[in-house]
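Risk mitigation, structural track. In case the binding assays with benzoic acid fail to produce interpretable data, a predicted complex structure has been prepared as a fallback.
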Amino acid sequence: MSAPSMTLFHNPASPFVRKVLVLLHETGQQERVALQTVLVTPINPIEQLNDGNPLGKIPALRLADGSVIHDSRVIFDYFDYQHVGNPLIPRDGSARWRRLTLASTADGIMDASVVVRYETALRPVEKHWEQWLEEQRNKIRRALGMLEQDAIAELASHFDVAAISVACALGYLDYRHPDLEWRSSHPKLAAWYAEVCLRPSMLATQPPA
Ligand code: BEZ
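Fallback model:
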């Protein structure tokens, strides 16, 4: 196999990056990209990352022609068009919108989880905005409640954009927010996750210890 022609700017702690890495594993494309780790935070922008990516998004993918595409949703879609197996995002019909909406719910869990992480890990404790933090946690709780109530059978049916996104969101809750103890009130989600986190793609992309 020739050297990878694409570079994925990545941080192994990011659940958004993990979504893309899981897709690459699931579709046998992991050799196509070189990983470049960037330890960017909202208060530590990295100049090199902003080239062609003015928002400094992670993940960002530099293509062979030097252009950059982002964010995780776009990169996921990009690679989903480049393998010969079943698409991981349905191409059309109501399934497309439903699976993308479930994936968006998972992305929202990640958004809220990451901003809570930044607020609690980076901001001085006397500046923490507790009401705002609690509303972010409430978003996570509502989204988990919906997945538990309405989506288990759908998640179990395919390991596609929806299931990969939810699995990465739950993995991030375990990683950064074990205090939320999401399993205790979401037993069906917990049982589903216990199975999918044993997939080689999930094992190979676990966040750092
Ligand atoms: C984290 O360390 O939790 C993190 C790093 C990069 C992106 C998102 C989260």
